[in-house]
């Protein structure tokens, strides 16, 4: 059976020290996602340098291996409709995904992939 991956790509609010985001990811983000039994593996990455050929629009991405891509979508609710994760995602957006002072707001792209 092929693995199923949800790929999230995004940026965090400009000016935030990476160390602060790393601590949050390890202490808050990981436990919330890891509590859901439908999420088989979850990890966050930050691009440290660009390779040849240019770069991506995003600096951060999450790899989330799940047991069912359709169930993850949950009819557009996302995250298996898990209210704990949905509430966490809303708090994440407020803290890291927007800057009301400047009007900046990140896109969070979600892509669904299956191993071949």
Protein architecture, described:
With about 120 residues, the protein is of the alpha+beta class. The protein has a single domain, classed as 2-Layer Sandwich (Alpha-Beta Plaits), CATH 3.30.70.100. It is about 30% helix and about 30% strand. It contains 3 helices and 6 strands, in the order E-H-E-E-H-H-E-E-E. A 4-stranded antiparallel beta sheet has the order 2-3-1-6, with helices on one face. It has a two-stranded antiparallel sheet with strand order 4-5. Helix 1 (about 20-35) packs antiparallel against helix 3 (about 85-95). The longest helix has 17 residues, at about 20-35. It starts with a strand and ends with a strand. The mean pLDDT is about 95.
Detail the topology: elements first, then pairings.
Layout: E1 4-10, H1 18-34, E2 39-46, E3 60-66, H2 69-73, H3 83-96, E4 98-99, E5 104-105, E6 109-114
Helix pairs in contact: 1-3
Adjacency order of strands in the biggest sheet: 2-3-1-6
**Rounded radius of gyration (Å):** 15 Å
Q: How many domains in all?
A: 1
The residue fraction in helices comes out at: 25-40%
């Amino acid at each position: 059976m092929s693995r199923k991956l949800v790929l999230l790509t995004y940026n965090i609010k400009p000016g935030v020290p990476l160390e602060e985001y790393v601590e949050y990811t390890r202490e808050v983000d990981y436990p919330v996602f890891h509590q859901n039994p439908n999420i088989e593996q979850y990890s966050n990455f930050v691009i440290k340098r660009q390779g040849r050929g240019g770069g991506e629009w995003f600096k951060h991405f999450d790899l989330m291996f799940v047991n069912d891509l359709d169930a993850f979508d949950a009819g557009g609710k996302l995250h298996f409709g898990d209210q704990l994760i949905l509430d966490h995602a809303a708090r994440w957006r407020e803290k890291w995904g927007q800057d009301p002072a400047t009007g900046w707001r990140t896109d969070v792209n979600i892509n669904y992939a299956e191993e071949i």
